[in-house]
């Protein structure tokens, strides 16, 4: 099975089971077809007929450029006022600019097609994002640019109504929207789900898998370093770990208040925990999808995900019944999904019995999947832009 669905001790009849199985098989077939598409696309690098400038005005832009596109930025200094990079991909020449000096009206617009990377997480960020949209709108009206796509770090409760009037379908000018989380309006036509990725705002690095990362025994069965919110499932997780001394087998460091900025020491501890644990526990926070999932994949530590929909406007049950994490599931993520942390002791029991060889195979599979996932997202992004921005031949 390409998807290790572990639902230990959950013997209840599941009316979705057959449908889920067929959906998973279909997902795997789509995934394999998409990998073929990537390979074909890479072998047909022809003339560039599209120029796209990406304006990275949210940290998620660094995940797009450095992790998904696999490109560098000059200068390498993360505190630089202006950073840029470029890449030719498919029929498109991409340039990327980011940094505090990228300000509306104070830099040269070098392409007719623009991708705006924006943060729409809360009110102050939305106000800033709106200024950028108004700037882009002015450029469209004065015929300086022709097409605009937006990559949006969405709100964790998926309340992204503010962006809708800017979309073409609602009389606006934005052709395409790539948005994080299981936003209910994702339709695979002009609104697409985008991965949250790693916390680039904390300078989480692009990790190159090493021989030792894949082959060395790891000291801990699992890890959880994070905030334990009052009355959340994270409290339940802590109680379960304390029972039977499971917390002694795992690297656990809980705090009561979220800290936006890591110290060098806490960040190094976190990376060490990922590298030294076979499993990374991913309890629901404000949203089920969290940076931790992608960061664990980077280090070959298998995410154990609490597969529960978070409150708010996320999830499109009319289109998919398998939200949350629809994007990752559709791409066949080989994670362990559990509905309740009471299932964790059985998962850890199974873990204790696994041989190092089995764990090595699992790590290889996880890291290979994550590499393929990023390659697929890149190709989908490029294809979507080309299909939308290039004139069609259907004259």
Automatic annotation (TrEMBL):
Alphabetical list of InterPro entries matching this protein: RXYLT1-like, RXYLT1_C, RXYLT1_N
Cellular component aspect of the GO annotation: Golgi apparatus
The entry's keywords: Transferase
GO molecular function, one term: ribitol beta-1,4-xylosyltransferase activity
Ranges where the RXYLT1 C-terminal domain occurs: 201-390
Residue ranges of domain RXYLT1 N-terminal in the record: 52-195
Keyword Transferase: yes
GO BP terms in the entry: protein O-linked glycosylation via mannose
Record protein name field: RXLT1 xylosyltransferase
């Amino acid at each position: 099975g390409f998807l290790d669905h572990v639902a230990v001790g959950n013997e209840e009849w599941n009316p979705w089971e057959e449908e889920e199985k067929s959906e998973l098989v279909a997902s795997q077939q789509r995934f394999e077809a998409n990998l073929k598409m990537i390979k074909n696309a890479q072998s047909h690098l022809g003339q560039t007929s599209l120029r796209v400038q990406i304006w990275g005005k949210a940290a998620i832009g660094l995940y797009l450029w450095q992790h998904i596109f696999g490109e560098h930025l000059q200068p390498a200094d993360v505190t630089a006022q202006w950073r840029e990079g470029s890449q030719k991909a498919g029929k498109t020449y991409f340039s990327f600019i980011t940094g505090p000096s990228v300000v509306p009206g104070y830099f040269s617009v070098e392409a007719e097609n623009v991708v705006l990377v924006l943060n729409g997480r809360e009110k102050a960020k939305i106000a800033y994002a709106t200024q950028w949209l108004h700037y882009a709108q002015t450029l469209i009206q004065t015929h300086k640019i022709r097409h605009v796509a937006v990559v949006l770090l969405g709100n964790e409760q998926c309340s992204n109504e503010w962006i809708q009037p800017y979309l073409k379908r609602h009389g606006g000018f934005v052709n395409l929207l790539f948005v994080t989380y299981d936003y209910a309006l994702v339709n695979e036509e002009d609104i697409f789900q985008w991965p949250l990725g790693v916390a680039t705002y904390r300078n989480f690095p692009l990790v190159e898998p090493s021989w030792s990362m894949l082959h060395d025994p790891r000291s801990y069965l699992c890890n959880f370093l994070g905030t334990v919110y009052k009355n959340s499932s994270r409290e339940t997780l802590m109680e379960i770990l304390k029972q039977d001394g499971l917390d002694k087998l795992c690297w656990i460091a809980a705090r009561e208040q979220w800290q936006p900025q890591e110290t060098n020491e806490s960040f190094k501890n976190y990376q060490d925990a990922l590298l030294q644990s076979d499993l990374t526990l991913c309890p629901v926070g404000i949203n089920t999808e969290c940076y931790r999932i992608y960061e664990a994949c980077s280090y070959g530590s298998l995410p154990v995900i609490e597969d529960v929909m978070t409150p708010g406007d996320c999830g499109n049950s009319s289109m998919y019944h398998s939200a949350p994490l629809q994007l990752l599931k559709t791409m066949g993520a080989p994670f362990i999904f559990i509905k309740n942390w009471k299932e964790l002791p059985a998962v850890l029991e199974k873990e204790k019995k696994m041989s190092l060889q089995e764990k090595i195979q699992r790590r290889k599979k996880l890291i290979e999947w994550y590499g393929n996932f990023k390659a697929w997202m890149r190709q989908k992004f490029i294809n979507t832009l080309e299909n939308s921005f290039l004139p069609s031949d259907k004259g």
